[in-house]
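Task 17 of the worksheet. Students: predict the tertiary structure of the chain below and write it out as structure tokens. Keep your answer in the requested format; marks are given for formatting as well as content.
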Amino acid sequence: MTMWTSLDPADTTVEPGARTSARLRVRNTGDTVEEYRLSLVGKPSGWSRVEPEVLRLYPGSEATAEISFAPPRSPDVAAGPIPYGVRVEPRENPAARDVVEGQLTVTPFTEARAELLPPALFGRFRGRARIAVDNVGNTPLTASLVARDDANRLVFDVRPNAVRVEPGRAAFAELAVRPQAVRWTGGEESHRFTVAVRRSGDDTSLDLDATFDQRPVVGAWLMVVGGLLMSAAIAFAVLWFGFSPKIVSAAKDLRASGAPVPAPQGDGDELPTAPPPPPGATAPVPGDPGGGPTPPSGGGARPPADGGGGDGGSGGGNPPGDNTGGQPAAPPAAKPVPPWRYGNQPDVVVEFAQERLASMAQDNPCRLTQRWTRGVIDAPTRASLICYQRAVVRSGVEQGKNSAAIFDTDEEGTLGRATLTSLWVQGVRPDQVQKGGRSMQTTQVMAAFWWAYNRDFSDADLKRMRSYATRGVDYFRNGNETPSTYDSNVSDHISTYQSAVGLPANGTVDWPVLRKMLGGSVR
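Model answer:
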């Protein structure tokens, strides 16, 4: 060795948003002039620095460098001990380089933000809103939600009334407001109320002021219209009884004159048989009121009726035992299949995607913030989906953070297998999904696998997918986890996916696997 090093102190503590430092002493124990280059390694390197970065020492001389730490007050810097190192590299004798190890402890801080969406409610019998709680601290946050009004004229229902939020995440609760007395007539009445968000272990609360405008059941315009209608009815009655019109029976006149009475159409209780179709026309399909040509063999899938997924039916050909005389049978009703498109019926899979998009960071431009229709790809949901899909592809192409394969299978603005695979693993890290461990992130990865690997879905597969979606909604809306164990079954599924997308089949959820799933790489 041509040098001697010492770090003082080796273990230091710092508060987020503050600054602290340590000193590194370096002594040249060689017999030549040496230049030592200093650099930081480890997690603190992004918000720490060494001054000076180069020490030039004569034989037997000693110098010091200052290592300063300034962690930001952000949820990105977790509380707790963080190991780091200072690399010392002699220029003349690089083989003698050394890493001096130390430890920095970041103290915890708690900070929460809350918002009521919308802050102004209105209705005749009730109003609804969502309470968003953001954890901008660096430790998990548990908060209780209580709504009250000073006049005690409202009834509140908050579900859930307590949420647990991880650092950098948001949780949501549903708020329903009902007036104790129904207002039948008159003008609107405004009620002020407050939603208190109180952190666990803290007596202070974050108060959200809001209003509920109670509208009358019978509005002023309806009173005016009712009065006009009543006046018209009275006037009509006066004219009617004053005029006394004479009503003459046409049937009596016909009988008196002996003229024949028109006979009812048809003969008996049954309608006459329809005439045969003209030459070259095809028989109408049973159940199709418009007739038209017979569907081709193979049957085209009909548009989804409920926004869900399933196996497409196939028509054409008569089944065994069909005695229709060669007439083509009606095709079986096609089951709706992914992807979900704009205007489909509500489905819990779409509701999961909405909750996932709404739970993204507040500064994320793709976050779903406008009011949306639950379970339906409406205009706000479609705009958020397009933004997310483009952002994934752009991040993959420009920075190589994912495989950028979403648009290989999914159309822009639709919720298909690739987009669902990406949404499920969004935010998951390899250290959260370890073999033998049990976590909610393992559940997310398994849900992503099912969308990425299965091209055809049976009824059982769809039931599993909607079960996963229900868990995802509960997690991203309420913070309720349904963890899964990373056992051999999970490892086998991951190996299958790795083989399908060209990765080494080691059964481990590492960054290459997550980048493929995040980019929408599906089988």
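Marker's comment: The two ends are 55 Å apart (CA to CA). Confidence is low (pLDDT under 50) at residues 244-336.
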